[in-house]
């Protein structure tokens, strides 16, 4: 028997960095990138293969402890043996360290595959616990937004310390995502913003402005106002530049997207590399923007329709 589990990546649409200071953020599943886990009976002991490791689970290096936990905790919740003779093969199109939720997605795919293999129903509560505890190992003190987004089907509105709310998406537009090819450094960016926040009075107003734009963005998503959403995306990027979390690679792709007809464009995630996003009215315009970004040096581009 072979069992398969999948998960999408995720994109932060609005609210990066400001979310740390009590402002809202909007994140959404991004199905253009995915992780697939395949479980089959094989060998003498529990083993795994993926892009970064191939071998026995109990011999995995500590750096991959979050994946080991997702496997072990899933087996515990299932009531399966701790070292069964099965093999887990993981394949991914989610680039690592780009703010696209790869660690949460792999935990989700693995849990779904293992529960399917053992023919056990996987409750939302079990899936949340498996993914969120794995995220704690990977990131220390995660907000829960990655775990919620990659296990769900639609955008979410998040404020630190409050219940995560679904967003009733109704937007006839396309999102283009482009990878600068440069690994982001979220922790460094967050630390630098914190120092800036303590030292300059205007920083609080920039953070507040990003929060205000995020509230507006939620309304535009719900009421199919793509042009207005594009405007607040542009404004948010300016504030993120002021916070020092953009860089030349991101700014260049943002400028090219706008020059090619994007309704709006901004960085997504922690910044200092990683990915940017652009909003397009039509599939054809999205294709033109993606081609322009690729021609300008983006290592990868993806497009997703936002209407459904």
Automatic annotation (TrEMBL):
GO terms for biological process: isopentenyl diphosphate biosynthetic process, mevalonate pathway. It comes from the Bacteria. Pfam families: GHMP_kinases_C, GHMP_kinases_N. SUPFAM superfamilies: GHMP Kinase, C-terminal domain, Ribosomal protein S5 domain 2-like. Keywords: ATP-binding, Cytoplasm, Kinase, Lipid biosynthesis, Lipid metabolism, Magnesium, Nucleotide-binding, Transferase. GO terms for cellular component: cytosol. InterPro entries: GHMP_kinase_C_dom, GHMP_kinase_C_sf, GHMP_kinase_N_dom, Mev_gal_kin, Ribosomal_Su5_D2-typ_SF, Ribsml_uS5_D2-typ_fold_subgr. One of its GO terms (molecular function) is mevalonate kinase activity. Residues 69-148 form the GHMP kinase N-terminal domain. This is Mevalonate kinase.
């Amino acid at each position: 028997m072979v069992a398969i589990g999948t998960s999408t990546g995720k994109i932060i649409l609005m609210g990066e960095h400001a979310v740390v200071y009590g402002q809202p953020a909007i994140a959404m599943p991004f199905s253009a990138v995915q992780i697939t886990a395949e479980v089959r009976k094989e060998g003498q002991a529990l083993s795994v293969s993926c892009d970064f490791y191939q071998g026995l689970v109990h011999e995995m290096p500590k750096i991959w402890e979050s994946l080991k936990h997702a496997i072990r905790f899933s087996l515990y919740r299932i009531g399966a043996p701790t070292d069964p003779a099965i093999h887990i093969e993981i394949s991914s199109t989610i680039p690592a360290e780009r703010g696209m939720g790869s660690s949460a997605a792999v935990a989700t795919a693995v849990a779904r595959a293992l529960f399917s293999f053992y023919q056990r129903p996987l409750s939302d509560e079990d899936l949340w616990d498996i993914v969120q505890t794995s995220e704690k190992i990977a990131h220390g003190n995660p907000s829960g937004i990655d775990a919620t987004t990659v296990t769900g089907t639609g955008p979410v509105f998040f404020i630190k310390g409050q219940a995560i709310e679904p967003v009733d998406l109704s937007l006839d537009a396309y999102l283009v995502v482009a990878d600068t090819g440069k690994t982001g450094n979220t922790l460094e960016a967050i630390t630098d913003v914190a120092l800036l926040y303590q030292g300059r009075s205007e920083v609080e107003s920039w953070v507040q402005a990003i929060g205000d734009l995020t509230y507006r963005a939620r309304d535009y998503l719900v009421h199919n106002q793509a042009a207005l959403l594009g405007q607040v995306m542009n404004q948010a990027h300016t504030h993120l530049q002021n916070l020092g979390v953009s860089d030349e690679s991101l700014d260049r792709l943002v400028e090219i997207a706008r020059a090619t007809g994007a309704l709006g464009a901004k960085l997504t995630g922690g910044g200092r590399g990683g990915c940017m996003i652009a909003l397009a009215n039509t599939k054809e315009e999205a294709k033109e923007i993606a081609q322009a970004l690729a021609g300008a040096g983006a290592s990868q581009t993806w497009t997703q329709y936002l209407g459904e």
